[in-house]
Amino acid sequence: MISLKNQIVVITGASSGIGSACARVFAGAGAKLILVARRLDRLQQLADELSKEFSIETYLLQLDVSDRHAVESSIISLPPAWSAIDILINNAGLSRGLDKLHEGDWQNWEEMIDTNIKGLLYLTRYIVPGMVTRGRGHVVNLGSIAGHQTYPGGNVYCATKAAVKAISEGLKQDLLGTPIRVTSVDPGMVETEFSEVRFHGDRERAKKVYQGVQPLTPEDVADVIFFCTTRSPHVNINEVILMPVDQASATLVHRQT
């Protein structure tokens, strides 16, 4: 098992859900965290909690990952003490709507494509070259069961997660011959702000997604990510699909009545 003490870990979408849970588990291992999100107040609150509980260092980046110029500027201008990034967790992502494709909202499409695909690409493009130069590093991409199985109304969201799967596989192939590791962690139902964001703040509709089911928690997913990043250096866990016991596929869910 690799020690993560003092390793520099970038976590996008760190202000809530899986990103926040990752921050806690990596902080517990003594890592130094670069926390990335659009909501600076949430990041600051998380950083204060982590500092108090684990006495670790954090560096905050208020950033929209879909803004390529902002991503480039933020990574290039990192202080020397924070620039040698060891682990990149591309967690930032979202879903918008459940419309049929021919009735879809193009603004929803663009937001999903810009965040889930372009944002992941931008962070990867500006961070991985340094990993290659230093001869160490690990990229963890948050995919989804939606990248493996399409479901009604999921069209564009599923396409973005299928892209994450393809990008992860392609990156692993492109990095062959280097010690850089690439992992895609692809969860099924996880109870986070995901459904609330998908339904534009409709909390009642979001609650129904998880009704009668014990979904995964953000901590469950963070635990798997932590496991992947702490294996022996010669071990690469390419892909993990994890789902609640009550879920058998993207659409097949057992609900307690």
Automatic annotation (TrEMBL):
User: What's in the keyword line of the UniProt record?
Assistant: Oxidoreductase
- Tell me if NADP is a UniProt keyword of this record: no
Pfam family example for this protein? Answer: adh_short
InterPro entries to which the protein is assigned, alphabetical: NAD(P)-bd_dom_sf (IPR036291), SDR_fam (IPR002347)
User: Is the keyword Cell membrane assigned to this protein?
Assistant: no
Superkingdom of the source species: Bacteria
Task: Return the similarity comment.
Answer: Belongs to the short-chain dehydrogenases/reductases (SDR) family.
Q: What is this protein called?
A: SDR family oxidoreductase
